[in-house]
Amino acid sequence: MTTPVTATPEFPALSGRKYFMNFPVTDTSHSLAAYRARGGYQSLQKALTSMQPTDVTKEVSAAGLLGHGGAAFPAGRKWGVIKLNDGEPHYVCMNADEGEPGTFKDRWLLEHVPHLCIEGLILASYAIMGRHAFIYIRGEFDLPYRRLRDAIEEAYDAGLLGRNILGTDYSLDIVLYRGAGSYVCGEASAMLASLEGKKGWPRNRPPRLTVKGLYQRPTVVNNVETLANIPAIVGEGGEAFRKVGLPKSPGTQMISISGHLVRPGVYEVEYGYSWEKFLYEDCGGIPGGRGLKCVIPGGVSTKILDANELKGLTLDHNSALSAGSQIGSGGMIVIAEGTCMVRVARIIQRFYHHESCGQCTPCREGMGWMERILDRIVRGEGHPDDIDRLYHISNANDGTTICSLGDSAGYACSAILDHYRDEFEYFITNGRSMYDGRLTVDDPFADVTATATAGASA
Amino acid sequence: MSENRPEKILEFFIDGHPVTAKDGQTVIQAAREHGFDVPHFCWHPQLSVPGNCRICMVEVESDNGDPWFDIGCNMPVTAGMRVLLNSDTVKKLRKDTMQFITLNHPVDCGICSKSGECTLQDYHYEHNGAASLSRDRKNHATKFYPLSDRIMLDNERCIMCTRCVRFTHEVSKTHALGAVYRGDHSLIRPAEDANFNDDVYSDNVIDICPVGALLSRENIDNSRVWYTEPTASVCPGCERGCNISIWHRRQAWAFKALDPKLNTRIERVTPRENPDVNGPWVCNKARDLAKILERPRAEQPMIAGRVVDRADAIAAAAALLAGAKKVVALVSSWGSNEELAAFQLTIAASLGDRLTAWVKADHQPVPGEVIEDDILIKADKNPNRHGALALFPPLPAEGLTAIPADADVVLVWGEGVPAAALPQGAQVIRLDAWAHADNEVAAVFLPISIQTERAGHYTNFAGVVSDFAACFTPAPLVTHAETLFGMLLSAEVGVRRASA
Description:
The structure holds two protein chains of two kinds. Chain A is of the alpha/beta class. Chain A has helices at residues 32-37, 42-50, 53-63, 75-80, 105-112, 114-127, 142-157, 188-195, 224-236, 238-242, 275-282, 307-310, 317-322, 341-355, 361-378, 386-397, 405-430, 446-457, and strands spanning 91-96, 132-137, 173-178, 219-223, 252-259, 265-270, 273-274, 292-296, 305-306, 314-315, 331-336. Residues 1-11 of chain A have low confidence and may be disordered. In chain B, helix 2 (88-101) crosses helix 3 (119-128), helix 9 crosses helix 13 and helix 10 runs parallel beside helix 13 (481-490). Chain B has a seven-stranded mixed sheet with strand order 15-14-20-19-18-16-17. Chain B has a five-stranded mixed sheet with strand order 2-1-5-3-4, sandwiched between helices. A three-stranded antiparallel sheet of chain B has the order 6-7-10. The A-B interface holds A 182, 199, 201, 204, 206, 353-362, 364-369, 372-373, 376, 383, 386, 389, 392, 396, 399-402, 445, 448-449, 452-453, 455-457 and B 49-55, 57, 69, 71, 74, 76, 93, 96-97, 99-101, 103-104, 133-137, 139-142, 144-146, 155, 159-160, 162, 178-179, 181-187, 189.
């Protein structure tokens, strides 16, 4: 029951090994038959017939696989925390709630290689001796949801899921859960709260989710791309996997790139690939002959890097860290010269304000405060102390919130301020952008307030 | 197994002072036990830890000189941990948090019913005290949203600590409240499939709300908190005997009240924490104590419906008792332990075999009332049945029909016994506090004081004794039952002389 899609153009000829984008996408390339024809589920066969659960974890640790959800935490270490003989049920939850602005690489995996993701999920569940696994998929992801749903059905029909997988003693059921579309539900603990049927609010740590996660049981939450790497690691061995990419950033990275670019899209690059080559050659550079102003490297939560900071950098975690930023979720946004960064900041902040869950004080109040200040500046009503105030709110959010949404918003705003303070000062002094005129902003919550008021008076 | 394991004690440091904590305690719990104040809004000792408000941030010193900061309400104490509650950074974090919390909170302390006991007000002065840094308008929301027939929510004052939500999830278990919307537009609202009116513990959310967001619709704007004071008391609503505080006008302000009734009015009732009885909660019935205790009172002694002098009424009652061959006493299960003991030591001891004393129920459940639950409410709606039964046997199962037909005097102490149900041939001595037609058909009627006018103790169903104090003065001719029993003995025509 697969859904036909139009075949995509050929993949860009980036150098290096590919784990995901290594087959021609056709109408049926996402099907079980196609996946098996490419060697799919052989790693699962291998693991279930010749490896103990701990062996799988050992291979993942040996591979040095870092999480691809943004935090880049070693996956093997996360799995290794689970005590296999504690008598508790263990859960793996695939985080398919890809909501970071500019990030859409998991979507590609879910649409085109759903069985790879499922195989990775089964292997991860086997490694921690889980009997149930969960996939929390973003509500807005329609095609990925349908593809995944169909793939799970196919897997059940083929004996790859359910009781006695591939004739072995191992059994696993997967629950596919569609989120309602809230950014914070991509945060692992908020996602588990949502899975439990509660409001998607993050939890305080400790305890860690690997100690008390879903239904208060030890739970591993992994990103889609992280789990999609597992079949390759189990299939070819951790040491072989480690030879791809860089020693400290093994493997490849899916990058979704958007913004002022000739060829935006989803790419897979081997860690260590030249950043500038990627931008200017593979992605075609900036359209219209404009210069590169800056790049948001891994989703808007990561600190921006301007054109100078990018020079000589490679696409890997350490390189990004050395420049003061992160690869994050692999959602790269390219911004060309001539773009008003005050408005960029306002757009980003509007997003964070809209998506702040409202649980903890600094984020709940700070996001709206920052947006109101930026709105006012953009309206041409800025005040000289607004820049200090934005820094103040960013700092007050740093490390004081339950999850990292508040931090991220602060980092995003303060990084833009650090780089382009002159643009803010110009806007405040002149009441208009260095690049363009004023902008009228509507109250995005006017309808919400009206609804609440109407409900009260009813 | 774990219950038998000895409790592990950890030593750690708060602001340089060595202190101990039980393994598993959080910093805020341990600090409070040792007298250190950690500000908090969302944390409540009886509720789960959400970590919403972030005002309880503390600093933990580390050996590498790189301190870390986290909320004290969720931070488990570890051995040797060095916690700073008042470092410069902690003070700054608290100040920033207070700036955030007051960002959209209206500064309407002057008209807020919580003013005077508002944590936000206190913390603002203690931890911030500065004017708002914001130049922008505050968010506006529904000012008065009726959460139920009893509770009003001022959305603008709400700081989303979610104590109320957690209360309905974890204590009353009605799951009646939740949070809707996101960010600074979040609101507390009744759950779609629940009715907050069905939560018989709902008024507790008023107490635990740290700001003036949740208000009692009954008491809103009735009195400022500084005009009132609490008196320790016990809820007489059921045999749980929840410990409560009855708030009434301060003596210093009593003479300034334009309406004298204000001086004897129960302004509100709040729980008085007692872990052995009710913890920090009470049900809504306790909140409505005024409806139970502020009914029309009987304030005049009567003989056969005729108002008489108190001494005459007492003498008449004593004469009836002295001359009776068979007396049946229906003992009040609302009487205090002291009153019950006084009855036993005086009347019962004097009448000896001529007396049959049974403990009766003064109150029965009323239609619509929750009879019993597994939280606080007990089926027996009398506060001191346990104490009374320790001295006297219960009324037989057949009820008032068990009163022998040859009983010549029936002494009815308290409510719950209609005159029509008593044997026609017996003379009735009635001791009651409330105005009722039955009082007038009694041979002798003596008005007695109510709980708010006397001090005493009740013994609850589990045998726990709780005390209550007097907060009002009884009317001149109203007598404490405890005193009255002695007066009946010492009356000129007393039972003692008669029995001699």
